[in-house]
Write a structure and sequence with these properties.
By secondary structure, the chain is α+β, with helices and mostly antiparallel strands. It has a 4-stranded mixed sheet. A hairpin with a 2-residue loop joins strand 3 and strand 4. Helix 1 packs parallel to helix 3. One of its GO terms (molecular function) is glutathione disulfide oxidoreductase activity. This is Glutaredoxin.
Length: 86
């Protein structure tokens, strides 16, 4: 599996939903909570083309987007292929 990174805050329902989908698929992910540290949010925004909302998800270093984007990839049958090792 490719490396999965997710930027979150503790109480964000979209973050919880995105993590639940990844967990359901058996994906191990690295979580960075940006809620209490403005420098972490700034780093996330720099990687996510200025997006400041959470979650922001990266698979294999590529920016996927947020929770809706992740679920759309799954619904389209594309998420499993993205997660698999090339």
């Amino acid at each position: 599996m490719k490396r999965v990174e997710i930027y979150t805050t503790r109480t964000c329902p979209y973050c919880i939903a995105a993590k639940a989908l990844l967990t359901k698929k058996g994906v191990t992910f690295e979580e960075t909570d940006v809620g209490a540290d403005p420098s972490l949010r700034s780093a996330m925004m720099a990687r996510a083309n200025g997006r400041r909302t959470v979650p922001q998800i990266f698979i294999g270093g590529a920016h996927v987007g947020g929770c809706d984007d992740l679920h759309a990839l799954d619904a389209a049958g594309k998420l499993d292929a993205m997660l698999a090792d090339a």
